[in-house]
């Protein structure tokens, strides 16, 4: 398994799992009806860099890194990770998160922040906690989960 | 004193205090060298609505309102407020914040979130607290204050 910077052509392989995750509406705060063009803008173009995790030419996951706040906040980055359903349970989120922290440091960031982790996404909360992220905020009822209704969203943070 | 929706022409009067506040770098996470065109984009164009507080044709302050997170987070709005230095201490921030909460409700939002309040901005923290906002997060050393160095940034939140 190899992680490398994404090219626009990679989006053909990213879109199926991006679409599946976003249409489910259970984890990410994207409109559930996000279309491909909007997805390219937010996943590939707006971020500072986007990476893919690839095995034998097949893309299994992807993440982006961007500056979370400009100006006086620009030493803190933000990342988002998606794993194809075919590749779940293989530790890919851990591998990508660790890779992203190395990339973040090489870009000069001093901390990483996740702005909006649905508290119902217990697997993600457990994983980020294990990887050294602290829950520094809890936004009451800030995420509308499609079946559970309003749930809290967490702000998670790691100073390098 | 009258609060109304802003027009693009109002930016001639907004820019002097926007520029003064942003160039100081003590409160807002904008690049301190933000130019007028970027300021128009982020203050007037990106938000859902922008308002000005006006007296005798003179604009004393301005605020924007926008959706803080799309999709499952789109019931929570975000606002930013700026007051001209000539109009400080007159309660304008309070007036604008109360106005913005009414606007937020009329637009269907159920909560308001401030993502990044510099903890060193004690006046703002005190004011938002007085107006019913709860400090739901503390981001360690997330804001680089020009004279105090790294200070925490707060996440403040009010469910209507």
Automatic annotation (TrEMBL), chains A, B:
Residues 1-160 form the N-acetyltransferase domain. InterPro entries: Acyl_CoA_acyltransferase, GNAT_dom, Mito_N-acetyltransferase. Keywords: Acyltransferase, Transferase. The keyword Protein transport does not apply. The keyword Ligase does not apply. It is an enzyme of class 2 (transferase). This is GNAT family N-acetyltransferase.
């Amino acid at each position: 398994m190899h992680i490398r910077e994404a090219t626009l052509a990679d989006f053909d392989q990213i879109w199926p799992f991006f679409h599946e995750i976003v249409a489910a509406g259970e984890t990410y705060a994207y409109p559930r009806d996000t279309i491909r063009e909007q997805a390219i803008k937010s996943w590939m173009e707006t971020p500072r860099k986007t990476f893919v995790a690839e095995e034998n030419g097949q893309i299994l996951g992807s993440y982006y890194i961007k500056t979370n706040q400009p100006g006086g906040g620009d030493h803190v980055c933000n990342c988002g990770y998606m794993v194809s359903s075919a590749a779940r349970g293989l530790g890919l989120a851990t591998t990508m998160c660790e890779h992203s922290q190395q990339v973040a440091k090489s870009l000069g960031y001093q901390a990483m922040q996740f702005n909006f982790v649905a508290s119902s996404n217990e697997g993600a909360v457990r994983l980020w906690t294990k990887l050294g992220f602290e829950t520094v905020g809890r936004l009451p009822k800030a995420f509308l989960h499609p079946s559970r209704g309003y749930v809290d969203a967490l702000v998670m943070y790691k100073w390098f």
